[in-house]
Amino acid sequence: MKKIILGVLIAFVVVVLIVVLSISLFLDGAVKRAVETAGPSLTKVEVKLQSVNLSLVSGSGKLKGLVIGNPQGYKTSSAIEVGAAGLSLKPGSVFSDKVIIRAINFDAPEITYETDFKGNNLSTILANMDAATGGHGQPAQPQAAKAARRFQVDDLLITGGKVRVSITALSGQSVTVPLPLIHLTDLGQGPEGITAAELAKLVVQEVEKAAAQAARGQLAELQKRGVVDLTKTLGTNGTIDIDSISKGLGGFLKKK
To answer: Contact 103/157 with Cβ under 8 angstroms?
Structure first.
C-alpha cells in the first residue's frame, strides 16, 4: 500500500512539473514573439530578442540579447543593445489582467546616440512611439489599447551602460562614454496599471535624456579641440549654430 501511495505521489509530482514546465516554455515563447511583433509596430524599427527564461515557481526571469534597430537614414547598426536583463515578478499575477513586476534590472546596455546636429536616432524612435500610441494629438487605437495587458513595475534600474556618441556630420566620428544610472520606481501603481507601450516609452525617454547628457560633455570637448573642422562641416562660416546642435542633442545644450 505504501508503495502504491508513493508511486501515486511521484506520478503527481512529475505531472505538476511537466505542466509547470510546459506553461513556462509557452510563456517564454509568447514573450519573445510579443516583443518581436509589437516592438517594431511601436518603434517602427527592427526589434529582436534572443531568448526569455521565466520561472513561474520563483517569479524570476531573464531576457538575453535585446536589440533595437535604428530608423531609416541613420548609419549605425542599432540604437539600443542589452546583453542581459533580470526581472522578478509576482508569479500569480501572470494570469491576471495586471502583471506585477517587483524589479527589472538592465545590465550594461550599449546605447548608440547618432546625431547630425539636426536630430538624433533616439528622439526619432520616441516620435515613432508617440505616433503609435496617440501622442502629439494623434488618436490611438482604442480597441487595442483597451485589450492591452497592464503592468506594475515597482523598481526599474539601468546600470553599467555605455553611450556611443556618433556624429554623422563629422564623417561618423564617435566616442564612448558612461551612461548615467537610470532608476525608476512605482510605475503603474493603482488598479489601471501601465501598458507595455507606455512602459517602453518611459524607459526610452529616460535613456534618451541620459544619453544626451552624456553626449553634451563630449560635444563641448570636441568644440574645444576641433572647432574649425566642426564649423566647416556645419557650413556656418565660423559660427556654430547652437540651436541646431541643441536640437540634435535633445535640447540639453540650451542654457537653463
So the answer is: yes
Q: Measured between alpha carbons, how far is 65 from 81 in angstroms, rounded to an integer? A: 7
Give tens-digit pLDDT for 61-107.
Answer: 899 999 999 999 998 999 999 999 999 988 888 878 888 999 999 99
The answer to whether the beta carbons of residues 79 and 66 sit under 8 Å apart is: no
Residue written as grid cell 526599474: 156
User: Measured between alpha carbons, how far is 202 from 200 in angstroms, rounded to an integer?
Assistant: 5
Instruction: Please name the helix (run of DSSP H) or strand (run of DSSP E) that holds residue 66, with its range, or none.
Output: strand 60-68
**pLDDT tens-place string over residues 200-230:** 999 999 999 998 888 776 666 666 655 334 4
**Given the C-alpha cell 524607459, which residue does it identify?**
203
Residue 46's CB is within 10 A of a number of other CB atoms, namely 13
* Residue 143 CB neighbour total at 10 angstroms: 8
- H or E element: which one contains 222? helix 196-234
